[in-house]
């Protein structure tokens, strides 16, 4: 597949079922996410629902972000020990938690999530989208990566104060780059 496929010994990874993709697809998604992140050049990034951390590892190697925090709640399918073994020798910051997000308001320049929100019901997604909005700085970014068939879930994030900057589809997966509207401007409009 690529040098990154070999360099991280990806054959040692187990797929994370919630994501529903293969190891090769995770690596491809990681490269595509990395290309978006490089253009924005954020200093502090949050990965929501990192699963087996293969996308994490790909983003870490490709972008060299100063601060990348990855969050997940690991279970019997894959343990936090396995994930830490995958990342051995790498600079990583894992937090075993998801929602409510355990961070201060406006903590991150960018957050992204790969194949997490399509597993949530609408009411819960609305609340989670608002939670994501809270931890992203004004004019910060969120990258939503989900199956194209559920592309309408972007509306939950629009309602939470994001506007779409870019949208594209790759092999049935959409990548939506959204910018958080400055809350000071938003307040003066209403």
Summarize the structure.
One of its GO terms (molecular function) is S-adenosylmethionine-dependent methyltransferase activity. The protein is of the alpha/beta class.
Structural account:
- The protein is α/β, with parallel strands linked by helices and 190 residues long.
- It has a single domain (3-189), classed as Rossmann fold.
- It has 7 helices and 7 strands, in the order H-H-E-H-E-H-E-E-H-E-H-E-E-H.
- It has helices at 3-7, 23-40, 54-63, 80-86, 122-135, 154-158, 183-189, and strands at 44-48, 67-72, 94-96, 108-114, 136-147, 162-170, 173-180.
- The protein has a 7-stranded mixed β-sheet with strand order 3-2-1-4-5-7-6.
- Helix 2 packs parallel to helix 3 (54-63).
- The radius of gyration is 16 Å and the shape is globular.
- The termini are far apart.
- The mean pLDDT is 86.
């Amino acid at each position: 597949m690529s040098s990154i496929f070999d360099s991280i010994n990806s054959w040692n990874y187990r797929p994370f079922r919630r994501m529903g993709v293969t190891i090769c697809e995770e690596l491809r998604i990681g490269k595509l996410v990395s290309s978006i992140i490089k253009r924005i050049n954020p200093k502090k990034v949050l990965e929501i629902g990192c699963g087996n951390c293969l996308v994490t590892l790909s983003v870490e190697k490709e972008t060299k972000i100063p601060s990348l925090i990855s969050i997940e709640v690991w279970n019997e399918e894959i343990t936090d020990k396995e994930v830490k073994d995958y990342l051995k020798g790498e600079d990583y910051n894992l937090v075993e938690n998801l929602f409510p997000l355990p961070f201060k308001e406006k903590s991150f320049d960018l957050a992204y999530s790969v194949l997490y929100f399509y597993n949530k019901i609408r009411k819960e997604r609305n609340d989670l989208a608002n939670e994501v909005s809270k931890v992203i700085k004004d004019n910060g970014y969120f990258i939503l990566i989900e199956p194209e068939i559920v592309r309408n879930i972007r509306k939950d994030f629009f309602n939470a104060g994001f506007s779409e900057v870019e949208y594209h589809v790759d092999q049935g997966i959409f990548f939506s780059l959204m910018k958080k509207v400055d809350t000071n401007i938003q307040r003066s409009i209403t």
